[in-house]
Write a structure and sequence with these properties.
Elements: E1 5-10, H1 13-24, E2 36-38, E3 51-52, H2 54-57, H3 67-73, E4 78-80, H4 84-99, E5 105-109, E6 112-116, H5 127-142, E7 146-151, H6 154-161, E8 169-171, H7 177-180, H8 194-202, H9 208-212, H10 216-234, H11 265-286, E9 290-298, E10 304-315, H12 318-330
Parallel strand pairs: 2-4, 7-8
Antiparallel strand pairs: 1-6, 1-7, 2-3, 5-6, 9-10
Helix pairs in contact: 1-4, 4-5, 11-12
């Protein structure tokens, strides 16, 4: 029996979840259909964009940029503050629906997971039928949409779910790689970030197909183990399984790549606040507290620095974690 894996990803999760909450509370406009963002404060003009609507994207607004920049691009944009506790509640409902079909689910973030369809193939006429049933049920019961990518490999299922959005089902089996994946820009490959893309472009590699055809030894010499890994992904090589019981967390963290170089302390601390909010919400959801806070920074040239401090008392509070992160940053 061929392994079939779904990658299920909530479309613009934070924005979608806030939209559902607003509509259920009597809001007359669906923020998904107008220029809107999640994050920051309009009056104080601080914070960063955590999520954006398709209409906001047309103004050139990017996830991770300062709210002040978004306001310059679209002065009338609607700004909705994040509600991380509510987002985790919606995430739990999303996963609960999926668990009615199978327990073989690997949740990788609040808004995405791998779903092993292999063991329930006899319950549906086809994997496409199953995907449509699951996708439509989530929308009907919870009010938000998902994309589903289907493949025999996890990395290809992940890539497929990132194709045209929203509310779509896509396949990317190994036989479809040359047509569907290789023509794409190399920056769209899973695990290729901004710095990796720059390095690959410097090597004359601009598409995923060109990366797949590259000598992996050359990639390893320039990019070490990451070069070998992304070459495998470009060729659809991935032997990882769907793991439904994650190992106990040794730590909690979150990271982001800023859309441009950050050169002032206040902007850096806005990013630290956003990260502290996400991490603290996860701590509270799991009922745990932390005793050490650390931060790490990587610059445009991939130079790394880090620092950590031990707290006097364990905590799960956003403000305390944020203040500790700022102390790390200043030190």
């Amino acid at each position: 029996m061929e392994q079939i894996i779904f990658h299920i990803d909530v479309n613009s999760a934070f924005l979608s979840w806030s939209a559902v909450r607003l509509l259920r509370n009597g809001h007359t406009k669906d923020i998904r259909t107008i220029p809107s963002i999640i994050g920051g404060d309009r009056e104080k003009r601080h914070g960063i964009v955590l999520a954006k609507s398709i209409s906001a994207q047309k103004y050139g607004i990017k996830t991770g940029e300062p709210v002040a920049d978004a306001l310059k691009k679209c002065p009338d944009i609607m700004i909705i503050p994040p509600e991380h506790e509510y987002y985790h509640e919606q995430s739990r409902k999303f996963i609960s629906i999926l668990k009615e079909y199978t327990s073989d689910i690997e949740q990788v973030s609040v808004d995405e997971c791998y779903f092993d369809y292999t063991g329930i193939q006899n319950k549906f006429s086809s994997y496409m039928t199953a995907a449509e049933v699951i996708k439509n049920r989530i929308q009907n019961e919870l009010g938000f949409t998902v994309n589903i990518g289907i493949s025999s490999k996890k990395v290809l299922a992940k890539m497929a779910s990132d194709f045209e959005k929203p509310d779509k089902v896509h396949t990317l089996f190994p036989s479809e790689i040359p047509k569907k994946m290789w023509p794409l820009p190399v920056g769209e490959l899973f695990y290729v970030g901004h710095s990796s893309k720059r390095c690959l472009c410097d090597l004359g590699i601009f598409t995923i197909g060109e990366l797949a055809a590259m000598d992996p030894a050359i990639l390893r010499s320039f990019m070490k183990s990451q070069g070998a890994l992304i070459w495998q992904y470009a060729n659809g090589i991935d032997g990882s399984e769907v793991v439904n019981v994650p190992p106990p967390a040794k730590g909690y963290g979150n990271s982001l790549t800023t859309p441009r170089d950050v050169t002032d302390r206040e902007t850096a601390k806005q990013y630290l606040l956003s990260l502290a909010e996400t991490v603290s919400a996860r701590l509270r959801a799991d009922g745990v507290k932390i005793g050490v806070v650390s931060i790490s920074l990587r610059d445009w040239n991939l130079q790394f620095c880090g620092h950590q401090i031990t707290l006097s008392l364990p905590t799960d509070l956003t403000l305390e974690i944020y203040e500790a992160a700022c102390r790390c940053f200043d030190e």
